[in-house]
Amino acid sequence: MTVKPRNYKGREDFFAVSDFLMDTYKPGGRYPNWLQPRWDYMHSHPNLDAEKLDKIGIWEDDGSIVAVATYESTLGEAFFSVHQDYAYLKKDMLDYAEQNLCADLENGNKELAAYVNDFDEELLELVRQRRYTRYESTRPPHFGISQFVIPRPFPEITLPEGYRLKSLAEDNNLHKIHRVMWRGFNHEGEPPEEGIQWRVQMQSSPNFRKDLTIVVEAPNGDFAAICGMWYEPKNKLAYVEPVATDPTYRRMGLGKAAVLEGIRRCGECGATVAFVESDQQFYLDIGFERMFFRHPWVKEFETK
Predict the structure, then answer these.
(1) Which of 121, 147, 257, 258 counts the highest number of beta carbons within 10 A?
(2) pTM value?
(3) Do domains 4-143+293-301 and 164-271 have the same CATH topology?
(4) Average pLDDT of 41-60?
């Protein structure tokens, strides 16, 4: 049958896209498509512009999803996932993104940041032909994808005296979670009370697990660091997102301990590898290895 494009329709498609991403995962550290946990995390993140979800493009062959073009937070960005047997759709997917996923600029023009894996020669050639420019700065940010092969047995995780590791299954104190997330992402002062709803939302994903979300509790009861961890059982992989440490407690090894404890628990579930979509030195020092980059290629489209 002919491959047909259509728009994303909501909850039913959420699970269908999840299955597609799990089915098209490629082991070895250079996976071409999104990991399913990233799709999961996107839908529970408070920064998501959920009103535009119907802008996401899906391509089907005989009822089975073979490609997806999506934004992550807001229009203006495009990420592409495609079954290897349907790589010829990449041109159509970029066409679709230019028509449906652009952001409106103040000057009346439109802009798109198309994120491309550094080993995807076909898509790289397309964006070059269309005169996209690869951003070298942090806006929009690039993604350096890194992996951590989970050892057996797992090394001991140490903490300073008086600190301890807990999961949200033991203590899901939303106010403490809100505070460490607010301060850990470098917001000044105390967090706004209305932001508590953000933390509720971030636990709303179908695959969110409290027992895999790790906090480090300080001697005074504060949550000093937090690490969200996702386990994808079909491919036996873990995914790190988000990680934050309160500035008061930095440079004490607390964020490292939270990440390693989350990975250790995923290893007990069956995971053999953990991924983080970052190449920050923090992760490389823990034992992650940088595998590839996903760079934004940006183009402004005149509409006048």
Answers:
(1) 258
(2) 0.96
(3) yes
(4) 97
